[in-house]
């Protein structure tokens, strides 16, 4: 069955252009012009991936609010921001809300399709259990690859798909430094250094909420990150 991509974009020409390109690649597409119309459908049934603009009609931050709502509904749903707002502040805000990727509308359609394909491969990799071991235990950390669930000292940690892959990549080889490029490879994500840094900050925050003394993700300046026990 073809995967369903939802596009939330208030400019008709842009919305139809993306929809046409995705349909040509074999995806089913649901397109929405407003936050309200999209969320009405999402509350009934989530698509396989969501592409959001930030500003919709007169609501300059509608996409951010939608991302927050969608993350409450599902940690595993792939979410991409595709927007004309390309400031570092907006990008970091989107990622902190749980988006898996943040792209400018200047990004070419082949590049957008490549990002979409990457996210779907990560979903399939988790479902197929390609890491070979469904449940991994590293000290107080427990990762259930089959269910995309993480716990720290038996306390559930709600991670997005991207965050899960990053933690898994770090924790499977404790003590080994992972460069940002290696994390991108291991986590099957194609993003820039700033995006990886934002994901790491968000991951740390979630673990510290469960354990204020958490310090297992160590920054190795000039190199990358490592998991320490």
Task: Write a compact overview of the structure shown.
This protein is α/β, with parallel strands linked by helices and 229 residues long.
Describe the secondary-structure layout.
Blueprint: E1 4-8, H1 12-24, E2 28-32, H2 35-44, E3 49-52, H3 62-73, E4 79-83, H4 88-96, E5 101-104, H5 109-128, E6 135-138, E7 141-144, E8 149-152, E9 155-157, H6 161-171, E10 178-179, H7 180-186, H8 193-210, E11 217-220, E12 224-227
Helix pairs in contact: 2-3, 4-8, 6-8
Describe this structure as you would to a colleague.
The structure is a single chain. This protein has two domains: 4-127, Response regulator (Rossmann fold, 3-Layer(aba) Sandwich), CATH 3.40.50; 131-227, Arc Repressor Mutant, subunit A (Orthogonal Bundle). The protein is built from eight helices and twelve strands. The protein has 229 residues and is α/β, with parallel strands linked by helices. The model has no long low-confidence stretch (mean pLDDT 87). It has a five-stranded parallel sheet with strand order 2-1-3-4-5, sandwiched between helices. Strands 6-7-8-9 form a four-stranded antiparallel sheet, with helices on one face. 44% of the residues lie in helices and 21% in strands. Helix 2 runs parallel beside helix 3.
